[in-house]
């Protein structure tokens, strides 16, 4: 018998320092996309981006609940035999979507083919990608190899990209030295959580920074694993989940505190702080 998630509406996740935060343990974060640092307070019992609460598993969903070291997660899998991956950033008029809801509204009936969607790489205050960005084989932002403050520039950072059913998460330098053909999609972010089956050298085992975070890694079979925490998680915990549980050799951090998921099968559509680029996983047509 098919069972579904029960969705409950809740308030949006506040991000800007001018917004009053609920009482709780202060946590440090640097991931606003723009690389700014601010201190926020974690809510005592956070829900996934303030929009949905997982009650039961929907067997038709490609996203399932998981748990690692006491932290609730959502684990979504894109399978090359079943799915396609693309990126999205702005509407036909050139206006950034800034939310999964705006994207869902904009694509209309095409939403019927969406398996799930998630925020992609980091972005500036206007929602524009901070680094490499390719959508439908068109590059709008070049690879960013510069140095700077914030998580984006925490080297090695990296790129999630692909064409057809071949997808990869790799370090920026490896991408620069190796990739010659433009992929069909690409988004740059940082840091790499796992590279060459090793944790990022600057990520503590369980550091003090806590946030709702998400990342992506590709396993040896070519499946892309998207992970979103449903409660504040450290970089180390998220990295170890990719390395130890999912066994991926390379995993890329996407963002934190703005992390959001759209899962049509469960009617989950996260709301919260404005996002930038979006990764969209769609269902392949039979024989396609």
Task: Give your account of this protein's structure.
The chain has one domain. Helix content is 9%, strand content 32%. The protein is built from 3 helices and 19 strands. The longest helix has 11 residues, at 235-245. It is globular and about 45 Å long.
- Alpha-beta classification: mainly beta
Order of helices and strands: EEEEEHEEEEEHEEEEEHEEEE
Strand proportion, as a percent range, falls in 25-35%
- Main sheet: which strands, in order across? 3-4-15-14-16-12-13
Let me know the largest β-sheet: 7 strands, antiparallel
Give a topology summary.
Layout: E1 26-29, E2 38-41, E3 63-68, E4 71-78, E5 83-88, H1 100-107, E6 114-119, E7 133-135, E8 138-141, E9 158-163, E10 166-171, H2 172-178, E11 185-189, E12 192-195, E13 198-199, E14 213-218, E15 224-229, H3 235-245, E16 251-256, E17 261-263, E18 268-269, E19 278-283
Antiparallel strand pairs: 1-2, 3-4, 4-15, 5-19, 6-17, 6-19, 7-8, 7-11, 9-10, 9-11, 12-13, 12-16, 14-15, 14-16, 17-18
Tags for this model:
19 strands; 5-stranded antiparallel β-sheet; globular; 7-stranded antiparallel β-sheet; 288 residues; mainly beta
Gist of the model:
The protein is mainly beta and 288 residues long.
